[in-house]
Structure formats: structure tokens, C-alpha cells
Amino acid sequence: MYFVERYGGIDGSHHKAWVLDQVARISKGTPIVIESASWSDGEQEYRVWLGEPSKKYLNWVKEMKGKYIKTDDYEGFEYDYDVGCAP
What is the CA radius of gyration of the chain? Predict the structure, then answer.
């Protein structure tokens, strides 16, 4: 939920796609990395990012790109998955 709370309100569909991708990665087992940074004046911040994508996530993306769909307008494989752009 960190990524949704921190970045979910940023305008731009490419940024929202990135947030969704981060959530998908985490839900499919990609590790979350949290690093503490501190300075001599006592200030501290946490830096959060994701590690290498899990095999489960990579397989899921592969399935998404080759998903067969049927609608009123189209029938066939849907080759679409957008990892977006970090804000």
C-alpha cells in the first residue's frame, strides 16, 4: 500500500500504470527493499524500492501479454502490459 499511498495520486496514466505494476510485482513475490538513510544532524529517511522481479511475476506478465480475449469488437490475443513510468 506504500506505493499506492505515496504515488497513486500523481497525474498521468503512465505513472498510475507504474503504481499498478509495483503492486502486481509485490503481490507476485518480488522482494521489497527498505533502506534507512541518516545524517549527522539526526535527520533520517527511509528509501523503498523493489528487488529483482520474481519468477511468478515474470510468468504472470507473460500470461497477460498472451491472454486470449473475446469481445463484441475483437477476438484474439491481447498483447498488452504496461509497466508505466516511475514518477
Answer: 17
Cα–Cα distance for residue pair 56/27, rounded to 1 Å: 9
Phi–psi pair at 35, nearest 5 degrees? -125, 135
Torsion sign (Cα): 15, 8, 31, 55: negative
Q: Which helix (H) or strand (E) holds 55?
A: helix 55-65
Q: Does residue 59 belong to any structural domain of this protein?
A: yes
Q: Answer for the pair 84, 65: CB distance below 8 angstroms, yes or no.
A: no
Q: Dig out the grid coordinates for 40 from the structure.
A: 549527522
Q: How far apart are CA 62 and CA 81, in angstroms?
A: 9
pTM of the model: 0.77
Q: Which domain holds residue 11?
A: 2-78
- What confidence tens digit (pLDDT) does each residue in 22-73 have? 999 999 999 999 999 999 999 999 999 999 999 999 999 888 887 777 888 8
Q: Domain count of the chain?
A: 1
